Amino acid sequence: MLELRNVSKSFNQKNVLKDISFKIKKGETVCLLGASGSGKSTILKMTAGLDFPDGGQILFGGIDLAPTPPHLRNFGLVFQDFNLFPHLNVFENIAFGLKMRNLPQDEIKLRVGELLKKTGLSGFEHRRVTDLSGGEQQRVALARALAPQPRLLMLDEPLGALDTALKEDVLNQLRNILHETNIPALYVTHDAEEAFAIADRILILHNGLIIRDDTPENIWKNPKYVAVAKLLGIGNIIEGEVIAKNKIKTEFGIFDIDCKQNKGEKVHLLLTQSSPAKGKALTVKVEDIVYKQNQFEVKSRGAKFLVKEKSKIGQTIKVNVRVQCLE
Prior knowledge:
26% of the residues lie in helices and 36% in strands. By secondary structure, it is of the alpha+beta class. Helix 2 crosses helix 3 (105-118), helix 2 packs parallel to helix 4 and helix 3 crosses helix 4. The chain starts with a strand and ends with a strand.
């Protein structure tokens, strides 16, 4: 379906994207995840035809999109700020693209009715969009993007303007709609939780490069890079030094693990909590403790661990951790 081949882009002589390549299959939701300025929205704009790469190709169905203007690509777009027409009601907003294509009125009415039902907006046809909540407005924007039956749906931080409760509701609805319609989707966000909830595959952007391309489950189990673990907030990242073969010295003790570096070289380790059967027992001194729901977050030497039993500052406790090398 959609394919980017060796795409590059620079602004003011600074490389924003370097050799970006990936594919999106039919019915697959691929999420571009990265910090602000990592190039996520630039990829989306180039795919939409709103910007152009300096090098490489963007193809759909094996055909280069370069000569195709945005309005002929038949791609749907959903933005963070909704971009609804304030002078049109809900029905008219959703029907806008269909009227531009001169579809028969009966077909427009039928298609809009189906989308109103699918997005939970039945009965809202004649409501002014300015009278709707943020979540309702975003659902109108989604229905409008889906109305022309696009070949690809692109979503740029679509839930960024919503509060947590609304975000979860719209996210669940969006996930169901994407599965039902089988439309390939390119989803841009800086929110890791959002990406893991919606994506079949996640591409993590860092310094203009895709450094991880895998399923949410595999990325969480093996972030591989320091930048990925930090972005996702996985476990504790600590520094260490190779003191012998398969021996890494850290402020939490010595770990038996091969990070491939030579003796004397610095390494980064990821400590994630695990069960006693699968992890290494680690002794830590409690420097601070915070109650979090039904657990306690213990802080020690900049690292954080969750424990079930309340302890005291200055107390020594044991936690079990899984240790991984990071690049």
